[in-house]
Amino acid sequence: DAGVIQSPRHEVTEMGQEVTLRCKPISGHDYLFWYRQTMMRGLELLIYFNNNVPIDDSGMPEDRFSAKMPNASFSTLKIQPSEPRDSAVYFCASSPTPEVQYNEQFFGPGTRLTVL
Amino acid sequence: GQSLEQPSEVTAVEGAIVQINCTYQTSGFYGLSWYQQHDGGAPTFLSYNALDGLEETGRFSSFLSRSDSYGYLLLQELQMKDSASYFCAVRDGTSGTYKYIFGTGTRLKVLA
Fold this sequence. Notes:
heterodimer; A: seven-stranded mixed β-sheet; 11 strands; globular; B: mainly beta; six-stranded mixed β-sheet; five-stranded antiparallel β-sheet
């Protein structure tokens, strides 16, 4: 398996523009997570899905952020409009059903977003 | 509220042993994970403890004490390639969801 795939790897955009980040989880994984990492705030969970259904979006910073998972093999995180403070590395991760004995999350390579 | 605390930085020499501590506060604790992240890379899973005690995986071991809300990652026979950031993460079941909360990370520097 190729692992979790994210695109683009780097995105530079101007304030006010719409940004769409994409993620393909590992086949067969039931859970998909979106994280944001910055020096100031560390690694923050934004939202996670179980079987394509959003379960907890309490980490989504504001209405400018939205995430969808139309099917088991694809998810998007959209920022509209983007602001300079959204600059960060965005990671997508997937995992099988997190039973007690097995809780590994597999992270994608991340998308480094810079909003000018 | 939910919080995790770990030291910001640890320095050790090659071949040594280092312990990275993590204390957590959460009302719906399900387990403690450890991840490694090299600069510019993605976090990679190292270990998971759901029950008290020590889990060993090669040079790395992880310990959990649920009564003390405390865990640690032990790295033995340190190698230069172990220089990275290490994150503890709590699987939290508060409010009926199972989300993961990450600590701020401990930057480990291994010196020759």
